[in-house]
Design goal:
- The protein is α+β, with helices and mostly antiparallel strands.
- It is built from 24 helices and 13 strands.
- A hairpin with a 4-residue loop joins β5 and β6.
- α9 runs antiparallel to α20 and α10 packs across α15.
Length: 663
């Protein structure tokens, strides 16, 4: 499959006129119209269909740099070759968006065409819900008139055109492509360009064309906006990651005592991991006897046991024949323990992910490096986890136990049946737990050796460097500044609207600035205004900490999430109020609007139920737990004034910006 567009015929034809005429149409006809008789020659057809014809028009739209590509449509007879041609083309030339044009009826053929086109797009192409636009290109004034029994030449009410557009959209929406394609009326339009060209002064034609162009332009703008958001998000996340890493590293390089604390914290995390894994495996082991007993009681497994009985009866002379036991082990016990294996495997993976990836600080970076060193060059981290799982699985295996249990002097059916009923209770759960814990501790001990080795290597590098502290002092403010700028840019891309802030009354005061009422397109928010000129340098970092802990709050966490952040410069009138200080930089942190809890309690506490009170306490505890996990165990000015409530749902939220100033 080619990775570049190969130019087979470099032929350029220039037209002297700027308008279409008969000569222009003839020239384009030669290159664009399907040649007569080509259907009988598959090779010739594929060669013709693979050619790319570039046509340049003196159009204001195309002067912006937009390129419109018309790819071969869908045809059942040519589907195989056309699909291959489109796929090769899209692998080289990735589109920004897809405009799918179809006639009035959205039939099964159009459904097949959309699916075929969608499947020909490259697998690594970043699809968004916005990438497809549907255009009904055969809608005309005359068609709407005919559908509504209006005579030709008479005026057609514009509301009938809107109604026709809705009907056309509903046919696309109700088709089988609706769900996977995220069909939306914002990305749908009706148009008939030829009607508009023939009768541009017609009110109805102008209305249809204007509606279509407006939606098309909005869709195109949204496509480029989505691309910018994706790029800015990648840069923003990288800034977030590097800021946390630099901040984390700076905590440990001040002196040997601080640096030694890094190793201590790493060992604490590993010991916690070891204990949690041991406890989890022990709980799973406790269930093994009941799992096997339930398996023996199943009707299908009773048939297996009966088969083992028959085998014993037929081989009564060989009382120690292990074959019947093999049937039971392989067909009953091993199958019954498969869910146990999966539970243990899931616990190992889950706890290992928490150990290595929960935070992005330097301690977990040390653990990751040690984990990689604990493997050979050809072995990945997942293989270390796999080895730990295999070791635990071997340690708790009851297979040898059952073989020993059934090696009795006499293998008669009565004894055999009794032993099966007794077997689960004879498993030594305590031995299994002890063996499993020993396996975990053995692996952890080896892991700690690698942690210490990497800590020593890192310490040698830190002590040998004469510029490390200066580099951190220089890079940290730059990363913080870039992080803030990228988040503000991303917010502006997502919400390109004017934010209105009512500064007549402060509703709360935070450590880094006051909070006012604000609005976006008639929606109310709380807006914290942060003025860097009024903040000491040490407090400027608090803005970044507040953004980091607020912008990605998971749903269900009772913390007021940061909705967006904007950067602006004060107007000249505001600058004069600041005693002549120019270029004052402000950051606007936008939060979802909630109501202060304290006034609600003063009014309703006497009628609150115990259930509501306990729910509030639980939500508050969950919020504090979240702050603890986010490495922010203290809450500035934490008191009742820091808690807000949604009056409709009665859910409470902890605010990150400060306390309530007035109500």
């Amino acid at each position: 499959m080619p990775n570049t567009l190969q130019c087979q015929e470099d032929e350029t034809i220039k037209f002297e006129c700027n308008t279409f005429n008969l000569e222009t149409r003839k020239q384009l006809h030669t290159h664009l119209i399907r040649p007569v008789g080509i259907d009988d020659d598959s090779d010739a057809f594929e060669e013709w269909a693979s050619k790319i014809v570039r046509v340049e028009f003196p159009s204001p739209l195309l002067e912006t740099g937009i390129e419109i590509i018309d790819v071969p449509g869908f045809s059942k007879s040519d589907q195989a070759s056309l699909f291959s041609i489109r796929k090769q083309f899209f692998n080289v030339y990735k589109p920004t968006g897809i405009l799918f044009c179809y006639p009035n009826t959205f039939s099964d053929a159009e459904v097949l065409a959309v699916k075929d086109l969608n499947e020909s797009l490259p697998g690594n192409w970043s699809k968004t819900s916005e990438y497809f636009f549907f255009a009904n290109t055969k809608t005309s004034k005359s068609e709407v008139a005919t559908n509504n029994n209006i005579g030709q030449g008479e005026d057609v009410p514009l509301e009938l055109i809107d109604s026709h557009s809705v009907n056309c959209f509903s046919k696309v929406k109700s088709s089988s492509i609706s769900t996977p394609m995220c069909v939306d009326q914002r990305r749908f339009g009706i148009v008939n360009a030829l009607d508009f060209i023939k009768q541009p002064r017609s009110v109805e034609n102008r209305y249809i064309f204007k509606q279509f162009i407006n939606r098309l332009i909005r869709w195109m703008i949204r496509l480029f906006q989505c691309q910018s958001i994706i790029i800015s998000k990648i840069i923003f996340q990288e800034c977030h990651f590097m800021t946390i890493k630099v901040i984390s590293f700076s905590k440990y390089i001040g002196n040997d005592k601080d640096f030694g604390r890094m190793l201590q914290e790493a060992n604490v995390l590993v010991d916690t991991y070891s204990k949690n894994l041991g406890d989890a495996v022990s709980k799973i082991i406790d269930t093994i006897p009941s799992v096997i007993k339930s398996a023996f009681a199943q009707e299908s497994n009773q048939l297996i046991i009966q088969s083992a009985h028959d085998n014993i009866t037929n081989t009564s002379n060989n009382v120690n024949d292990p074959k019947p036991m093999k049937y039971i082990i392989e067909d009953i016990i091993k199958l019954a323990l498969n869910p146990i294996d999966r539970l243990i495997n899931n616990e190992i993976h889950s706890l290992t992910d928490i150990l290595l990836y929960k935070n992005s600080d330097i301690v977990q970076e040390l653990l990751n490096n040690a984990m990689e060193a604990n493997t050979s060059d050809s072995v990945h981290k997942k293989d270390v986890v796999h080895h730990l799982f295999g070791s635990i699985k071997s340690a708790i295996s009851p297979y040898e136990g059952i073989m020993r249990h059934f090696k009795e002097p006499k293998m008669v059916w009565s004894e055999f049946n009794t032993q099966i009923r007794k077997y689960p209770e004879t498993i030594s759960i305590r031995t299994m737990k002890r063996n499993a814990v020993q396996v975990v501790q053995g692996n952890i001990s080896r892991f700690k050796v690698h942690i210490k080795r990497h800590h020593d290597i890192l310490g040698h590098i830190v002590r040998a460097s004469t510029t490390l502290n200066n580099n951190i002092d220089t890079s940290l403010p730059k990363y913080i500044s870039l992080f803030n700028d990228m988040y503000a840019l991303r917010s502006h891309l997502l919400l390109p609207f004017d934010l209105k802030v009512d500064r007549s009354k402060v509703v709360a005061r935070g450590t880094i600035g006051p909070v006012y009422k604000g609005s976006f397109r008639n929606k109310s928010f709380m807006v914290q205004v942060v003025n860097f000129a009024e903040l000491p340098l040490s407090y400027q970092f608090e803005l970044t900490k507040q953004v980091m802990s607020g912008y990605n709050v998971a749903k269900g966490i009772p913390i007021i999430p940061l909705h967006s952040m904007f950067k602006q410069h004060c107007h000249q009138q505001q600058q004069q109020q600041q005693n002549g200080v120019g270029d004052i930089e402000e950051w606007l942190l936008v939060y979802k609007k909630q109501s202060p809890l304290l006034p609600y309690l003063e009014k309703n506490i006497s009628t609150m139920s115990i259930t509501q009170s306990m729910t509030m306490i639980n939500q508050l505890a969950k919020a504090l737990e979240y702050l603890q996990d986010e490495s922010d165990p203290t809450h500035y000015r934490f008191r009742l004034e820091s808690i807000y409530i949604n009056p409709s749902t009665k859910d409470i939220y902890l605010a990150k910006f400060g306390y309530v100033e007035s109500t």
